[in-house]
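Record format v2
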Amino acid sequence: MGAYLVLEDGSVFEGFEGGAFAETVCEVVFNTSMTGYVEILTDPSYAGQGIVMTYPMIGNYGIEAEDFESGKLQPKAFIVHELCSQPSNFRCEGTLDSLLKEHGIPCLYGADTRAIVKKLRNSGTMRGVITADISNMARIVSLIKEYQHHGLVESVSIGTKRVLGAGNTGPKIALIDCGAKQNIAASLVRRGCEVTEYPCGVTAEEIIASKPDGLMLSNGPGDPEACTGTIREIKKLYDYDMPTFAICLGHQLMALAVGGSTQRMKFGHRGANHPVKFINRDKTYLSSQNHGYMVSPEGLPANAEVNCINVNDSTVEGIVYHGKKIFTVQFHPEANSGPHDTAFLFDDFIKMIKEGVVNA
Amino acid sequence: MRDTSIKKVMVIGSGPIIIGQAAEFDYAGTQACRSLREEGVEVVLVNSNPATIMTDKDIADKVYVEPLTIPTLTKIIETEKPDSILPTLGGQTGLNLAMELEEKGVLAANNVRLIGICARAIKMAEDRQEFKDTMERIGEPCIDSKVVETVEDALEFSEEIGYPVIVRPAYTLGGTGGGIADDPEQLHDIASNGIRLSRVGQVLIEKCIAGWKEIEYEVMRDSKGNCITVCNMENLDPVGVHTGDSIVVAPSQTLTDKDYQMLRSSALNIISALGIEGGCNVQFALHPDSFRYAVIEVNPRVSRSSALASKATGYPIARVAAKIALGLGLDEIPNAVTGKTFASFEPALDYCVVKFPKWPFDKFVTAKRTLGTQMKATGEVMAISRSFEAALQKAIHSLEENRDGMVVPALIQKSRDELLELLHHIDNERIYAVAAALYTGIGIDEIFEITKIDRWFLNRINNIVMMEKHLSSGICDKDTIKKAKMLGFSDAVIAKNIGITPEAVKNMRKMWGIIPSFSIVDTCAAEFEAKTPYYYSDYGVENEVHTETRKHKILVLGSGPIRIGQGIEFDYCSVHSVWALKKLGCEAIIVNNNPETVSTDFDVSDKLYFEPLTSEYVTNIVELEKPDGAIVQFGGQTAIKLTKTLNDLGVAILGTDADHVDAAEDRERFDQILELCGIARPKGQTVFTTDEALAAAQSLGYPVLVRPSYVLGGQGMQIAVSDDDIREFMDIITRTIPDLSQHPVLVDKYLMGQEVEVDAICDGEDILIPGIMEHVDRAGIHSGDSISVYPAVTLSQRVQDTIVDYTRRLASALQVIGMMNIQFIVLHETVYIIEVNPRSSRTVPYISKVTGIPAIALATRAMLGERLADMGFGTGLYRNSGYYAIKLPVFSFEKIMGADTSLGPEMKSTGEVLGIAKNYNEALLKAFEGNGVKLPKDGKIIVTVCDKDKPEMCEILKPFADSAFRIYATPGTREALLRAGIDAQPVNKISGESPNIMDMLHEGGVSLIINTPTHGRLENRDGFKLRRISVEAGTTCLTSLDAAKALLESTQIVPSGHISVTDIATI
């Protein structure tokens, strides 16, 4: 069946109905990764969004449940050029289309994804709707205009705290889950940490009372400024001198907690090929990224040093907080999907906790 | 940071084009030289291959077209005093030479350092044991293997790990001498051959993991240790087929992110451990049912794969590698495609790329078509689309093999058992056998079990096959046609299946608005705006090409894949024409599909269309771009064949018009023109059947030359001396060209004269001949396989004047504008014409370089209406440059098992080397040296020639009767030699008793074999075996008396140790 993507500027892109197709409003973003659609679909940072994949043949290797980054598929919609129905890989458990159906995610396939990306690149991220019915454009435009997402972080955070790597003898880490990819905790557990994962509504006091050796702030969806409660708690933990490592949304929340500001980007960074320069080390690493907001370089406190920047557009990619044992990054050292080049940051974190050395 | 102590860099090229080392190194070298000069570095270039663009004086500051030998390189280093050498651009040849210069202390003595890679890293990557040790140290898995130096050790180790095993010789290119052995007997043969071919006498015996997935990564690293991968590629053919002979797709299709990142991380580990500063190719075998993998090999340099990766992604690997060698960091080098990003990012593709090899089996009908670890392809094509199916079909269209699609009628007629049998043969036809198997209902699992080709690829091929079946039921609604076009079906295949004409399909499509659009290759999947006009076609998507321009818009058709008879020379011509057009203020648009070439570099033309060179695809471009004119003279037969298409579309063909091109090729019309000009030609007739051919031959009198019309590289051309020959040759011709009514056969009287060749630039009135070239080999050996000498050495002034005069007459009669190539035969002071090609030829790059005349630029200007008289080079025959320049053909026989090496009218060489000097003999010696021929003054020579050549052989050897050469001859030849007073030791023929030639070759120490063939293509003859064995034993075997004479003389006359080197930029 024919179906469409309509963007808020009125542009229409044609395709076919796939997945659990239903009329769906979302914020439309694009991802340039050539592999990793399973990890991307299960990344909670995509909550509320419709993802356009730039690689044209998606679903080639089917689905592998062990590659899930969370318990379910997170975006509201999935838009591809081709949805492969004949996947092949030794771990393949089924087709992507069947997974989308199972999780109730609508898909628009057969779309000219490159044209959509060019539109988003030029006009910036837009809201849109995928629908089978464009007979009444006024109806669709008002649908899009009404669309707002609220409480995204709350919707993806865990309900109650849990312990991962119980019995591990390494540092005890408190992880505030704002929509964490599972590999953040897994990366710490693999390094011998015992990780206690808390819902995003956790208080600083509860964390401090559990006497962790370090704090981990996760990635997550949406506008960081909406997370006022979590920001407040993070500020307390900052003042408490808790050794902290933060990723993506966590990095933004830390900046907001100390008086910095964030801003919405034109179309964000979503892909597996973003070069990040570690200024003090004079080294550049490739990173996985997924963010539509960024920390403004202006307005940060004096002890905050921007130690990582994006080579393409010089945006802030990492901050080290001098006088504290805190460093935060905008990109994803836990990868999945994407390059593993910066996984050493987890080692740096543990070293910082154990030896008190901050490797800027 | 740019290392400012690097001021003068020597770049070593890869030498002649051979199988395994082709145009990709000209592409890389040219791009790197330009990149170095951008940074203010003075570039000294050395390459023995005159057909390359890198050896142009516009590309490097100093250009030495000299043999790639240690003495010559040493001399150039001493003369030019470079501070650094960049050895990673000249393929395996460049690396090997750099290692030798280092080992022999030449670098230290001259205070020169290697940049881009150090000798230690070369050794670590290239030496089998060191590589294995390094991989073990960094925890990267290799395959069970052992380096051995004797056959006994090879056998012992193989017992231990179990057969089958793969044999890989160290320090050879394209896997020369390698192979898979299933049992001790096969191992004995392969290992002994491999040990001999290896520069260091080593082979690696490796557990065979045929059937695993073969995955490659292209990696870059800078001096700060920053690493990126440019792209990865997946071979459709599993491990077991050389990657150069595999169908390759980029990016990988069947790898999850876990698989992808696991191998990516491994590739980065490896390049870091080796400490390479530049580009590197890592090949992996990945177990299809687990995360197990093994590193197959690493190429610490630019390669065929890096050229492919550059074209597939838009990321210029050689350009960036050159900058890194100068000390710049990846994050300091801007990405020229986007202008915004830097070289430290990894390209994101939003399309799929398929590379398909081009094999020379049409030239070597006796050769084994089996594919294995030794590469056999001469070239390759690349195609781009959003779907794998369309990319694969576009690649097949680009091959120009008269095959429109995957479904081959002859194959789908075969029985199930026959097809299953064919699937077991890993050869150039297997992919079509797969399609036929699917077409006839053989299941994907069954095909997978036999071929181990991943089911993903099989499913995709099945999609194509099922669509073809669907079409053949006569369905032609809008949706079906649109789907078929999105799967890459040509109008011709759609038409054939539905039972209508291609024009009808096209009209239907247009009515339904199913027309192709063009998308940009931009390195970043549209994330950033691209500045690069690099396009491919697809259906059902937005068009991204802007066609408005105020400039004069000219389409230049390229020459497609490298094949025997149509090589890198034509790319040289296309590129120079594009550059000339740009200089003249035109917008130059190039169409080509060869990823190895300079012409498909993104900044050579104003617009690059990476598309098949067929009527349909070129029509698409013309209908969109509406060019003011098109140039077809420079793209070989590939471009010429498209003249009619362009004419029908109303595009002006610049230069000689189509009608006159036809007049030169049509027998009857050409005869009339010759008569009008008063020029003689060997008598001949046009025939359509074997009976007519026999009648013609008998009336002309044997020997006669038999050849199909409209061919390139003398395909199917033979000298017949009897009726039997005529029957044999006609049989072969009719097998390759089924419809002789369209392409008749020419039968000509064969004249045993001196062959002469000229290239001329013509403006419609005047001509300019850069120089007259004389062939050392007599007529009958294809001009591309002949030793060619500039200037003419044996021709009288009167003959030379006649040649100039005839050229002028023909240019005028055929109204040639642009380039023309004429081949003459001179017999008893009479000049005959053999053929006229009103287009560029393979000698143009060579003659341009040795005379200093920019022939293609002048021809292009003439095509746009300028007069030769105003161009500053005069008219008529250009003055002698004062140098002798000798072009020697180079063959790749050792790669093609079973190919007959004897020379004849059909071209067999893959490349050429140049010898240039003030003195004829020195030039000749240099040419032989450049070709790797070593004939010591006391070398052992085996002579065995056919009866008719015996008297002449005696004449040739007479002057050497008292030399230090040790001559051996077979009984008949020896008798003739002894009678002529030439002392020769006896040796038996191959089929004779021991000690025979075979034993002598096995013993080693033989420098040269002179053998003239009887004739024919039968492979059971003694001479055929001898020639094959000498090739496999690595002993030079000359089958031309003229070449033998030239070689013998050159070694005796030039004093040893004397080397002169010439910077041709000064000519």
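The first strand of chain A starts at residue 2 and ends at 7.
Chain A has two domains: 2-149, 153-355.
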